[in-house]
Specification:
It is a multi-pass membrane protein. This protein has 210 residues and is mainly α. The protein has seven helices and two strands. The protein has a two-stranded antiparallel sheet.
Length: 210
């Protein structure tokens, strides 16, 4: 059973790292073709793939616990970010403005991140299991792709609307949602074969251990 828990700890650690990195780099806007997105879009979809691996290997209960750990980690990051911003720097430290620029996020953006995280992660667990529960479809690539189509739409809509509703026109908000959704969906689709291979490898390793 040692390898069983060792793999779970590794997956949980990677999941938490992806969430924290996503929160730190979310403030930077980048261009991918015609789309303007936050840099976190390039790594955040990986979190859904990891939670799907945990779900498939360890079950829904453990997957939801891992999601809660990611949320708590994000909350700790927010608290310490405010400490970094508010705590006076030493007189010889001349880079405080850079730290403030990186860690200073508006409360509304932080709230949007929390709402999007919780709604999307739990939607992902539900959607990943739905084809298997209703139609007995076990193919991981299909189930992961199916869940990503739903999950990334939920994540994009919740984050953009909570962050920017009544700040920009509806057309601008729709463009932001569509841009994020398309890019995240493409990246998530590319992850599907990797997720399938990872699940098969983990099942084989754990079965060999037993």
């Amino acid at each position: 059973m040692e390898k069983y828990y060792e793999k779970l700890i590794t997956l949980s650690g990677i999941f938490t790292a992806v969430i924290i990195i996503s929160n730190i780099i979310a403030g930077k806007l980048v261009n991918i073709g015609p789309f303007v997105i936050t840099l976190s879009v390039l790594i955040y979809p990986l979190s859904f793939g990891i939670s799907n691996i945990v779900f498939e290997i360890y079950g829904e209960k453990i997957a939801k616990k891992v999601i809660k750990i990611g949320f708590i980690s994000s909350l700790i990051l927010v608290i310490y970010s405010y400490i970094v911003i508010l705590y006076p720097p030493a007189s010889i430290f001349n880079k405080n403005n850079a730290y403030v620029a990186v860690f200073n996020s508006t409360p509304r953006i932080i709230l949007a991140s929390f709402f999007a995280y919780l709604s999307a992660q739990y939607t992902n667990v539900w959607a990943f299991n739905l084809p298997k529960r209703l139609f007995k479809i076990n193919n991981v690539i299909f189930r992961n792709t199916f869940s990503m189509v739903i999950t990334q739409l939920v994540d994009s809509i919740v984050f953009v609307l909570v962050s920017f509703l009544w700040t920009y026109d509806l057309n601008v908000l729709m463009n932001m949602v569509i841009s994020q959704y398309i890019v995240k969906l493409i990246l998530s689709s590319l992850n599907s074969p990797i997720i399938n291979i990872s699940i098969q490898r983990l099942k084989k390793d754990l079965a060999f251990e037993e």
